[in-house]
Design a protein that fits this description.
Structural class: alpha/beta
Radius of gyration: 25 Å
CATH superfamily of the largest domain: FAD/NAD(P)-binding domain
CATH topology of the largest domain: FAD/NAD(P)-binding domain
Helix content: 25-40%
Distance between the termini: 91 Å
Number of strands: 21
Number of helices: 14
CATH architecture of the largest domain: 3-Layer(bba) Sandwich
Strand content: 15-25%
Number of domains: 3
CATH class of the largest domain: Alpha Beta
Length: 472
């Protein structure tokens, strides 16, 4: 048994763990990184990267079907599903070197390719190595949650961890779960030639603004995706090569089943009790991301129990590094964290939705500034007029923004910046956006906030009248 010491021990080489390892090692800390599976974690291998690559393949296929309005004769694409998966694999392989063991060893990180488990409050065992560390970071991420639906153990099903390995196109894909993963995979597969049925126990895209979600759901239904809401899966069975899902609204059958119900944090094998690390579904941490019961242990990303996004894990890395390396007080916040569902159209959100803003600040305190895509010249010229932006404003400052439409994920960054830095709506209104771009949508939304204050204000009109009458 080898015993080593480190300043910082990181369990998990996903987004959060890699960011901490790179930063801490390059700033002089002695760092050990444990990874028992694949470098890059879920995002690179099973999540963000492959899903966006498959969506890109579907987008190309859809473009061939929808060229008529541009004067291009539409054709039915010949989709090679296996070749689309080759594209997914090439994308992963292109990014892999950035997250590779060799790169991090070049930073001076000792990388141990074993799973880790606590054996004391300051010690973790990984294979034949015991590491004692001043600070330990749990960055184990999460995996797909498969609910105990009767019969699920008797059928062949896919999750995000193996759907990208499937080489033969599903004839009819049944997806249980109408959240972001389910919707993205539904659109990718309908565009690549599969029939798709989504079964959701509550409301599809239920965590998003209902008005914005309706735009996405209408688009998917228009492309042929069958979306069944308020239909809790009661039983799953398989016979004659077909998988059937029984719900209160009927039984739905298909050739393949994808479980996209949610995520489960990977903490079960860490032996957290031996480290005196309190947990429930995730590690219990304070705003500083430290364990509430063992101040030598931190948790970041999904392991910290908050928003489950790759960019949140990266953000957490900065919070933790300031605390661990420099001894500075450092706390996370969530009001400025954006998220995106990468369907077509995209749906992006930062801060409070309209309903949440009215609930938190009071109905009369919230002003909603809105602008529609069909008034943006670039959207009109490209035939992408479906969508809108609405910004929730309190005392002149944005507290949330919802965007649904083309490039919503790119546009939301302006509002994340504004909220993160406490900027007023006037800062966005003062921005000059190049014409014609989708970026004008943000500026026009800010303008929509000020328009009533200027154009419907009697005082303004009196001042203008006075100036025009008496100013030489």
């Amino acid at each position: 048994m080898e015993r080593i010491k480190a300043d910082v021990l990181i369990i998990g080489a996903g987004s959060g763990g890699l960011s901490i390892a790179a930063g801490a090692s390059q700033m002089g800390a002695d760092v050990v990184l444990l990874e028992g599976h694949k470098m890059g974690g879920d995002c690179l291998n099973y999540g963000c990267v492959p899903s966006k690559a498959l969506l890109a393949a579907g987008k190309q296929a859809q473009a061939m079907r929808t060229g008529e309005k541009y004067g291009v004769s539409p054709v039915m694409p010949e989709v090679n599903y296996g070749a689309a998966k080759d594209h997914v694999r090439r994308v992963i392989e292109t990014i892999e070197p950035v997250d590779s063991q060799e790169r991090f060893e070049g930073f001076g990180v000792r990388v141990i390719r074993e799973f880790g488990r606590f054996i004391s409050p300051t010690e973790v065992q990984a294979g034949d190595t015991v590491i004692t560390a001043r600070r330990i970071v749990i960055a184990t991420g999460s995996g797909p949650f498969v609910p105990p639906i009767p019969g699920v153990g008797n059928v062949t099903y896919y999750t995000n961890e193996n759907i990208f390995d499937l080489r033969e196109r599903p004839d009819h894909l049944i997806i249980i779960g109408g959240g972001p993963i389910g919707m993205e995979m539904a659109q990718a597969h309908i565009r690549l030639g599969s029939k798709v049925t989504v079964i959701e126990g509550a409301r599809a895209m239920g965590k998003d603004d209902p008005e914005a979600a309706a735009v996405v759901l209408d688009s998917l239904r228009g492309e042929g995706v069958e979306i069944i809401e308020e239909a809790q899966a009661e039983e799953i069975s398989e016979a004659d090569g077909m998988i059937s899902v029984k719900t209160p609204k009927g039984t739905y059958s298909g050739s393949h089943l994808l479980m996209a119900v949610g995520r489960k944090v990977n903490i079960d094998k860490l032996d957290l009790e031996k480290a005196n690390v309190a947990h429930d579904r995730a590690v219990k941490v304070g705003a500083d991301l430290r364990s509430v019961t063992n101040k030598k242990v931190y948790a970041v990303g999904d392991a910290a129990g908050g928003l489950q996004f790759t960019h949140v894990a990266g953000y957490h890395a900065g919070v933790v590094i300031r605390s661990m390396l420099f001894g500075l007080p450092s706390k996370q916040r969530t009001d400025h964290i954006p998220w995106v569902t990468f369907t077509d159209p995209e749906l992006a959100q930062v801060g409070l939705t309209e309903a949440d803003a009215r609930k938190e600040h009071g109905n009369h305190a919230v002003t909603v500034a809105r602008f529609d895509y069909n008034e943006n010249d670039r959207a009109i010229s490209e035939g992408k007029k479906t969508g809108f932006i609405k910004v929730m404003v309190v005392k002149g400052k944005p507290v949330g923004a919802t965007i649904v439409g083309m490039h919503a994920g790119e546009l939301i960054g302006v509002w994340a910046l504004a909220i993160a830095n406490g900027l007023k709506m006037s800062a966005v209104a003062a921005m000059v956006a190049p014409y014609p771009t989708y970026g004008e949508i943000n500026k026009r939304a800010a303008g929509a906030y000020f328009s009533p204050k200027l154009f419907d204000n009697p005082t303004v009109k009196r001042v203008v009248g006075f100036v025009q009458k008496y100013l030489p």
